[in-house]
Each structure stands twice: as C-alpha cells, then as structure tokens.
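To the wet lab folks,

You asked to see what we're planning to order before we commit. Fair enough. Below is the target structure as tokens, and below that is the sequence we designed to fit it. If anything looks off to you, flag it before the synthesis order goes out.
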C-alpha cells in the first residue's frame, strides 16, 4: 500500500481553477539537510496537509513521474501526458501545475540544488525505469542509516537518463479564450467536431482560432489536434489497450491510418511502443 506524502502537487483530476502563469505560488525547499532528495506520493487519498491549487514553483528541482496510471503536467506553453517509465525534470523555480487520472499513483521527487547535475539546466525528459521507481519508493518508505541513504540517493541521481521516447509535448495557445477551446479538445480527443464547430461552441470565429494557433503554437489546428490524439494514444497504449481500440478512442476510423499517424509523430509503431511502455498491474508491486 502506497502512503500519501505531504507536498504541493495534486493527485486529483484536472483542476477547475484558471492557470495563472504570471503570478505562480512560490514554494520553499522540500528536501531537508543533509539529504539530497525526497519523493511525495499521491495515491488519490486526501493529502496530510493542505495543497495549494494552481500554478506554483519549488525552490528545489523536481522530477515528475507516474508510478501507475497517467499524469498530466502543464508548464507554460505546453501540456504533457506522462505514463509509467516517463518523467519530466523541472529546474528550480519552474512554474507548473499537474493532475492525475482517477486511480493513478503520481510521484514527485524533489532534488536539492546542491545535488542537481550541472547539465540539468532546463526542462528535460528523463526515463524512470521500473527498478529506479522501486528504489525511490523504497527510500521514501524505509528507515536506514544516513550514510546508506545518502549513498543510495547519489546512485539514484546517477541512474537517471535521457528518455529516447519522451512524452509528447502538446503546445497550448496563450490566449485564455483559445486555451479553453484547447482544453475541451484535449478532454475529448476522439471527437470528430470540425474547427468550425469547435469555434462556434466557444463563440469564436474560425479566423480568430486559426490565427491564435498559428501565432502561439506554430501549427494549424488540424496538426495540433493530431498531436493531442497521439498524446492520448500513448496513455492508452501504456495501459495495455489493443491498438484497434486506441485508434477508435483517438478519432481514427481505421487502425492503419492511426498507425501511420502514430509513427509520424513518435518514430515507432503503436505495437513497438506498446512493447516498450506497457506497465505491470498495480498489484505487481
């Protein structure tokens, strides 16, 4: 059984509050001396301490990773949906917000500034392999002498590596009106509504929406929606869903069309991704 550890992240579903990037809530350091890192685990139960909603920062570095299910990380200008094995490194002071799908177990590993490798200067995808996940959870749940804990923490940091198949970045428009439309599309990736229909639903002109996507994300609405669908597809594939079902859930009428689109975005086939990313059942721990 995983314990919920106090922290500033949220294990709940997508937040209802507006994201305020200009004035993020500032958080202090989470790691106590002399330790190098600590991990907060959210398993859906109420947190032990109040958790601040909305965009916030940390004085420590932060590795965001799901242990079970999926986790959505929102940074300024982009949304990433993470599945087990994937992690995102956020340097100290990076504004962010996150939320988990129901039934997920989400983990946040805080790293003190003194232990951050010199080349980890920006946001980057890191692979958090199953064995490394277990080491982090073991450190969190087990008492041990300080010298052993510090040696193990150093090894954990050394074992973190760049992810060859990082989470798909889905850029989001800056305009709050267009972002509301984008959020609706991301919640319903299989929808076949046209750009015209989405614009009308939000009382916007097609020209306004098209200009915002071209200006803020550098691509057309159609290409952006394809990224949204591929991001959703990686989550479903990691859960072990059949490729034909994933194709349908992501708005594709045929498996072949979905497979071709998936390969264009990720560089691998859905079955290849499925072999690499399928997660063990939660009870396997």
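Sequence we intend to order:
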């Amino acid at each position: 059984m995983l314990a919920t550890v106090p922290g500033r992240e949220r294990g709940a579903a997508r937040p209802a509050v507006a994201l305020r990037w200009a004035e993020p809530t500032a958080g202090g350091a989470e790691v106590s001396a002399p330790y190098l890192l600590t991990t907060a685990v959210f398993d859906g139960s109420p947190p032990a301490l109040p958790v601040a909603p909305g965009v916030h920062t940390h004085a420590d570095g932060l590795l965001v990773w799901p242990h079970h299910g999926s986790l959505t990380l929102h940074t300024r200008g982009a949304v990433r949906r993470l599945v087990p094995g994937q992690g995102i490194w956020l340097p100290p002071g990076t504004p962010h917000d996150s939320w988990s799908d129901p039934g997920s177990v989400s983990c946040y590993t805080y790293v003190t500034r003194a232990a951050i490798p010199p080349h980890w200067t920006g946001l980057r995808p890191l692979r958090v392999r199953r064995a490394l996940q277990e080491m982090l959870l073991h450190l969190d749940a087990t008492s041990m002498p300080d010298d052993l804990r510090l040696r193990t923490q150093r090894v954990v940091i050394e074992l973190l590596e760049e992810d060859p198949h990082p989470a798909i970045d889905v850029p989001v428009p800056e305009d709050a009106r267009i972002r509301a439309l984008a959020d609706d599309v991301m919640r319903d990736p299989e929808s076949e509504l046209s750009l015209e229909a989405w614009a009308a639903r939000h009382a916007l002109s097609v020209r306004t929406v098209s200009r915002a996507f071209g200006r803020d994300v550098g691509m057309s609405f159609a290409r952006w929606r394809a990224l949204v669908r591929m991001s959703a597809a990686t989550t479903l594939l990691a859960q072990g869903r059949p490729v034909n079902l994933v194709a349908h859930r992501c708005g594709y009428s045929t498996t072949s069309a979905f497979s071709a689109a998936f390969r264009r975005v990720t560089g691998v086939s859905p079955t290849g991704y499925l072999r690499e990313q399928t997660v063990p059942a939660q009870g396997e721990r």
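Structural context that might help your review: Confidence is low (pLDDT under 50) at residues 1-8, 278-285. DSSP finds nine helices and twelve strands in the chain.

Thanks,
Computational group
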